[in-house]
Amino acid sequence: MAEKSLAVVTRTPGVVAGRIFIYTLLGIAAVYFLLPFLVMVMTSVKTMEDIRMGTLISLPREINFDAWGEAWSSACIGVNCQGIRGYFFNSVKMVIPAVLISTAFGAINGYVFSKWRFKGSELIFSLLLIGCFIPFQVILLPMALTLGALGIAQSINGLILVHVVYGLAFTTLFFRNFYVSIPDDLVRAARIDGAGFFRIFWRIILPVSAPIIVVTVIWQTTQIWNDFLFGVVFSGGDSQPVTVALNNLVNTSTGVKKYNVDMAAAIIAASPTLLVYILAGKYFLRGLTAGSIKG
Amino acid sequence: MSNEGRQTGRGFAGSLQRYLPGIVLSPTILAAVVFIYGFIMWTAWISLTESGLLPRYKLAGFLQYVKLFQNDRWWVASRNLAIFGTLFIFFCVVFGLILAILLDQRIRVEGALRTIYLYPMALSFIVTGTAWRWMLNPGLGLERLVREMGFTSFTFDWLVNSKMSIYTIVIAGVWQSTGFVMALFLAGLRGIDDSIIKAAQVDGASLPKVYWRIIIPSMRPVFFSAVIIMSHIAIKSFDLVMVLTRGGPGYSSDLPATFMYTFAFTRNRLAFGAASAIIMFMAVMSIIVPYLYSELRMKRNG
Lengths: 295, 302
Description:
The complex is a heterodimer of chains A (about 300) and B (about 300).
Chain A: H1 13-44, H2 48-53, H3 66-73, H4 85-115, H5 121-129, H6 137-150, H7 156-180, H8 184-192, H9 197-205, H10 210-226, H11 229-234, H12 242-250, H13 259-279, H14 281-290
Helix pairs in contact in A: 1-13, 3-13, 4-7, 4-10, 4-12, 7-10, 10-13, 10-14, 12-13, 13-14
Chain B: H1 2-8, H2 11-47, H3 63-70, H4 72-103, H5 110-118, H6 125-136, H7 142-148, H8 165-190, H9 194-202, H10 207-218, H11 220-236, H12 239-244, H13 256-266, H14 270-301
């Protein structure tokens, strides 16, 4: 079989050695990236006794899922000893509406910014884009005061509002960049035929939007699920998302430190985004690179 | 003429159609004006007062900024950001580039490897921080592992050593973000015209030379984007520090982001926290605004 690679024209010993070198380096890198997660999984199925006896990478003597059960439903986070279960569902309740609302607004905004430009719309778009880059510390205090005034401080609804508002810049950017590539003539022809603003959106734009909807939903889901800053500042007690609960669990200094429970809780907290990544990795990559304004 | 009429419509329905795009955008514009620009100004205002636990809107000039720049902890946080930012960006870019170049050599299992390199990016910093905290724990993690391998005097206590704690943040941060930089570079490499490379090879240039002399220099825009995005991530880094070291021991691994949080929300010095937030904001803007400007101008010209 003829190799088509740039490098490999013939299979001289030098070339073979080069290939071995490349694969070795790539293999080492793979181990480096996988190791922390493997350590987490192995630690989570060890007993505390086993953890004290063995080392980081020693295999568990027997596989024991007690730590998983404890992390899910009985570990103490602050004074609440019901595991991270409740916080996990807080995150679910927060992520679903926040993703749907911010994606819907992003789609319609992107449609306007790409197909219904008006005087000043480019400027408005640029000013909105800044919202992707502000360090959120600069809006934390007014947001806390505003949520308090609105009566939704320390609530999941408050978090949904925050995530929708600060997700809009990203979702709008994604949809706008995608819609720019749809030929304007299509829209122009529809307008001449008498189709209005919404009709064109529903009939022409939305049906071809599936790829960018997937990218946006993945991006927003991972961003909002993984958020910690907004969670720790704007939620309290019963409304905390899972990342905040995990941090509290890991950073508790009272009692014996149960590393296996910590690791199990961390894997549970990671599972939704990890699942999204495994199922839709290709789109995840596209979403990540889209986040760098490379379209 | 009739086309024109149909396009814009007449009467109420017509003007509604004309203003519809603006109406549709208005919630977002309103949100941006209030929640981005309004809030930034609000924070700036708080930073010019003496607000403590509660905001008091009596101006006190630049008092908080003066205090901030006299505060030792702020300088530790800023210096940490410089150390963390430089090392984090450097290692992410170097490792990311190397991995991208290696993956670009028609590797059989490229898809699987890419997946492995990139998955940390899907995880929350809180999750990866938990894992790294466990591995870097001197009594249980790497230190013990190496000691049990026979090197009994091996010490690796960076996590609890105030001189080294900031470097543990770098380790975990690089692990998390290298895959992303690799993805950027890989996309860049795939965009390069093969014929240029072939021509160079016909001229007798070796593969490393082709990369060093032709390919890497032609990816300057990717380097630029990667560095900008990484510096933005570095300045925002908050989660990783909070879970890994909580800024400690003492405040040795504080970053401006954790500094602001501590003063504004746990020490109830609103105005002081606001001042540090404004400085952070100005730092990010001084990087991002020229970048956005050049990106947008490039798109217009291209």
